[in-house]
Design goal:
Chain lengths: 310, 424
Amino acid sequence: MASGSAFAHRHILGMEQLSREDISHILATADSFKEISTRSIKKVPTLRGHTIINLFFEPSTRTRLSFEVAAKRMSADTFNISPSTSSTTKGETLADTARNISAMHPDIIIIRHPCSGAPLLLSRHVKAAVINAGDGAHEHPSQGLLDLMTVKERLTTLSGLKVALVGDIAHSRVARSDIIGFTRMGSAVHIYGPSTLIPTGIDQLGATLCASLEEAVRDADVVMTLRIQRERQNDPLLPSLREYASQFGISRRILSLAKPDAIVMHPGPVNRGVELPPEVADGPQSVILDQVTNGVAVRMALLYLVMGTS
Amino acid sequence: MSASWCIKNGRIIDPVNNIDRIADLLVVDGRIKGVDQPTPPDVPEINAQGLWVVPGLIDMHVHLREPGQEYKEDILSGARAAAAGGFTGVACMPNTHPVNDCATVTAMIMDRAAAAAVRVYPVGAISLGSEGKQLAEYGEMRQAGIVAVSDDGRPVRDSQLMRRAMEYASDFGLPVISHSEEATLSAGVMHEGPVATRLGLKGIPAAAEAIMVYREIALAELTGARVHIAHVSTAMATELIRAAKGRGVRVSAETAPHYFTLTDEAVQDYDTNTKMNPPLRSAADREAIRRALADSTFDAIATDHAPHSILEKEVEFDLAANGIIGLETALPLTLALVRDRIIDERRLVELLSARPAAILGLSGGTLSAGAAADITVIDPDLQFVYTADQVVSKSRNSPFLGQTLQGRAVLTMVDGTIRHSLLA
């Protein structure tokens, strides 16, 4: 199905570990899988007999559903474990959980965890392939890949673009995966948000920090907004969501500074009227639902590639 | 049993007595007789040719975990680790279970320590339960054996309480040791900077340390009392301490080997053996720490020896306990500073022996005639691979495991009794 060199990664822990060639290979594979989801019978036997465990330590609707849909369309058997049904509340450590799950011989474990680095820790204690579905404020590689796929699909290239990344960079794992992914593919990432949400040294990941929203968005090819949470652990990050919307939201006026064919993205779920007003979120430049569709294709590709069935 | 030795032909380094030359050191009945004394017959000889003979090393900041967490370390195992690292005395912090906040707990520690391989000097709590509310009874704890007070690990938030602690501690000649950290700024798990940002870990800014160091200096200035700043990790704090010393404030300070050896870049792959508080800082901070060791801004190198089992360390980085063991690596890591010409041999002995003894009012730190024969013999060239199976401490949480280290204690003597020896 997919062409090119063999895929060398046992685990998908982050964009950080993926080369430009790896990313192109994953996107090409995802492209070839996308058509499956448009058939009337949306199922191929590729992963029949394989066991996939969704180990979600944080609430997630769309990412978990997306991985589950991807797995089922590949005919894998999927099982979901979430904190309320797992043993972690009984004091079991992640390493214990990992060894117990491993004893049941799963092929792939997909993990979402509030602590950065948890997927790496898991990968040291299991024989299965591990896919990071979001760890703390670290990475969310499948989201980064589906963002790349969506941009490539719409703008036909991933190099030489200006990507404006606006919002809560500090707490966003999507931001890190996107910064690494877009810069690795040859595009420039320009960051803007309230200073309370910009982490120290973010420029050292390869992004450019802008002094104003206008500067970030001007002539951008892609305007990527990130979800805002007003308060975290009693840390006073923002006075109000209302002020965020008026000072940092992507209004039509701000969007008009971007290139005429610029696309608007958001990893979801959107705080309507905060990061994006409805007329922008649902406007002609929005590709938010394309991102969701491509998410399934990218995750099918990842499951396929880590199983080494190419 | 008489503990008498003639330590022959070693390089004797004793800053207090201004000695640095090759000579013989005579020990008679557990006490130092002197340098180049005639050796009485029947006194066994120790050949120290090519080795350094220094006053026993003193670590003024360790956690021995007893009472309460003996699965990590206990007084006897910690003391054995100390002897193996060349230390003849250690000051143990009060964050045990129960907290060492009264004479009963102090007496229990002193009782256990009577059988320990090295001298154990308890540090009492500043406040009851180290809860930062009510002063502990320093007078009675002093009588039972404490040498300082500290709420180490639980920084005193209330500035009025800290002021009163300094005033009251001075009545008993006790220094107050401050773990300087502004708690509202330090909810993170590693140094705030590009590495934390890359790893998606919450940062602790250098300002969290500097703000509290300045408060302690201001309070020491206000009260005239003595304050000692524990485990300094930042450039900003070294500047504050240097300036305070310059205007005569009674402030002393220590740093730990990991702060002059490693930076936050060591926190690769979420290795929980690089998680400690204060955290490993930037390369610029490490340079400043080294400068402050060279120019006497620092008085002491202390390990903050913090044993933890895999129960606390084989977990997510966010959830891992802070701290690493340090007693067995402090000397080789400090010797690396001598090889790099950042400090000289005399300064090494000041930092690891003479000054900590003076700050805590201990009798050690010198090779003066008549002093107890607490002596460390160092082979500055001996290379060894630091592996888990040779760790003497009960715990193995060190970021230096697997590394080749150079220089170590080949003999540790307390009261003239050999507590550790690698000599044939």
